[in-house]
């Protein structure tokens, strides 16, 4: 199947990047960034062995969640999240990658409590300082983390970033390194563990892995160009 071939290629490249970096390939999870990809195509990739998918829009996610409800897919939410949509995600996504403000932490806490669960999240950091990108500014990260740590039904597992798009992936490396360094510093300062770094997309995931990514979010390379 074409899906299986594409998946194998990406997995091989992940393994090679891990071996260059002296990392265990099991420590890097491939997430299929499946926005605009129809459910049946997601099903095909699932059958080839891809178990984790991430969606950006709540409406689109809910439709696919229903259509694929017979599969135990590990769904993540990776897009900008409006506060009034949080309630629709509870119990359906294992990880929200895009916590970026206190009001969102408040809402996730409230909805998770109501649903009787603990929602795992990553804090999205705008390492490139781009106006158009989501995420908390690096200098505001500590305050948001402190705020989130007070929530009983919210568990922060790490950091996520969407760096600037630069033609040469080597030029993106410093942004990935910056996220890792921020994580390391904060772990020490706060005396806690933030095991996950969600970073790297189709054109730069290998560099991200060399810099410590534990989740790479790959769309185009798996599913083809989005229309
Ligand atoms: C679309 C998307 C990706 C995947 O991008 P590709 O370049 O297609 O691999 C990764 N992360 C987020 C947050 C996305 O929205």
Description:
The chain is of the alpha/beta class and 227 residues long. It has helices spanning 2-21, 39-48, 58-67, 102-115, 141-149, 173-190, 205-210, 220-223; strands at 29-33, 52-55, 74-77, 95-99, 119-124, 154-160, 196-198, 215-218. Strand 4, helix 4 (102-115) and strand 5 form a beta-alpha-beta unit. It is globular, with a radius of gyration of 17 Å. The model has no long low-confidence stretch (mean pLDDT 97).
Keywords:
227 residues; TIM Barrel; single chain; alpha/beta; binds pyridoxal-5'-phosphate; 8 helices; eight-stranded parallel beta sheet; 8 strands; 40% helix
Give me the strand/helix succession: HEHEHEEHEHEHEHEH
Q: Please tell me how large the radius of gyration is.
A: 17 Å
Bound molecules: pyridoxal-5'-phosphate
User: How many DSSP H or I helices?
Assistant: 8
* Beta-strand content bin: 15-25%
Distance between the termini: 22 Å
Going by CATH, the architecture would be Alpha-Beta Barrel
Q: Residue share in helices?
A: 40-55%
The level 1 CATH classification is Alpha Beta
Let me know the CATH homologous superfamily.
Alanine racemase
Count of structural domains = 1
> Low-confidence parts lasting 5 or more residues at pLDDT below 50?
none
Q: Biggest sheet: strands side by side, in what order? A: 7-6-5-4-3-2-1-8
């Amino acid at each position: 199947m074409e899906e299986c071939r594409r998946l194998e290629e990406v997995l091989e490249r992940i393994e090679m990047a891990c071996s260059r970096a002296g990392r265990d390939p099991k420590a890097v999870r491939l997430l299929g960034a499946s926005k605009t990809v129809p459910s049946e195509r997601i099903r095909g990739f699932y059958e080839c062995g891809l178990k984790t998918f991430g969606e950006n829009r709540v409406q689109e996610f809910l439709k696919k969640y229903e259509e694929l409800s017979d599969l135990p897919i590990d769904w993540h939410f990776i897009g900008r999240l409006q506060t009034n949509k949080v309630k629709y995600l509870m119990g359906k996504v294992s990880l929200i990658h895009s916590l970026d403000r206190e009001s969102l932490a408040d809402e996730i806490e409230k909805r998770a409590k109501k649903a009787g669960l603990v929602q795992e999240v990553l804090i999205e950091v705008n390492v490139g300082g781009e106006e158009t990108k989501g995420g908390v500014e690096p200098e505001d990260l500590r305050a948001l983390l402190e705020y989130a740590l007070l929530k009983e039904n919210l568990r922060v597992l790490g950091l996520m970033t969407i760096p600037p798009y630069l033609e040469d992936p080597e030029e993106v490396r410093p942004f990935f390194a910056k996220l890792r360094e921020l994580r390391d510093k904060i772990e020490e300062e706060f005396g806690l563990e933030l095991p996950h770094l969600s970073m790297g997309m189709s054109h730069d995931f290998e560099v991200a892995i060399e810099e410590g990514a534990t989740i790479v979010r790959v769309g185009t390379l798996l599913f083809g160009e989005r229309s």
